[in-house]
Amino acid sequence: MIEHRQVHHLVESLQQTIYQSGSQTLRMALLAPFHFDASVKQIFASLLLGQTLYIVPKKTVTNGAALAAYYRRNSIEATDGTPAHLQMLVAAGDFEGLKLKHMLIGGEGLSSVVADKLLKLFKEAGTAPRLTNVFGPTETCVDASVHPVIPENAVQSAYVPIGKALGNNRLYILDQKGRLQPEGVAGELYIAGDGVGRGYLHLPELTEEKFLQDPFVLGDRMYRTGDVVRCLSADASERQLF
């Protein structure tokens, strides 16, 4: 169960961390179906921040050339998608005239090679959108961490890091005994903070199993993701993909 406050936290955090649009109106493309959690970002960002929302036709979403043409025709400035969408755009290779300023990518591991190739193609076309890798389960209201992809540092490992906590979220990497792991040591990822939902509707046992008391902040809760990660630095965590 996701409440209004988690959605507000998500939108406000994305605005402050990524969009930074102020009073400027962004043209945002909605690729995800409305029943998929990723749609929350575009739908509610449009409602709460006064952005213009463009609902991309389903056939266009699955075709790289058609998607690029749609972005160009409607002067899209912000979009959210998966690594598959990036691969389709790279394969189409049609970047001339695009006005994209922000691209948020999540849902699965983002290949560093694909991200690097995309940014190079944009540079060749004379544009430079801000590419951000986002990560988070539905239980923590879509996005819990962000990592800006810097062109010069895009290929440092097989996958782009999931980054650092978004907004008032907190990321803990714990061992099996609930102890914080030092830098470079893998552990299970727990997410705490304002993005954590209430729990699962009518599933008290599963809620008790996954939504735990935060041992580091009295009275707060954290969500057990089941993902194995390691801390690379103060600004980035890497998700281990098996």
Annotation keywords:
242 residues, alpha/beta, Rossmann fold, Luciferase, domain 3, 5-stranded antiparallel β-sheet, 12 strands, 29% helix, Nonribosomal peptide synthetase, phosphopantetheine binding, AMP-dep_synth/lig_dom
Which quaternary structure do these chains form?
Answer: single chain
Major sheet details = 7 strands, mixed
How many runs of DSSP E, i.e. beta strands? 12
Uncertain ranges: none
Alpha-beta content class: alpha/beta
Assess the beta-strand content as a share of residues: 25-35%
Overall 3D form = globular
* CATH level-two architecture of the largest domain: 3-Layer(aba) Sandwich
CATH superfamily of the largest domain: ANL, N-terminal domain
Give the N-to-C terminal Cα separation. 29 Å
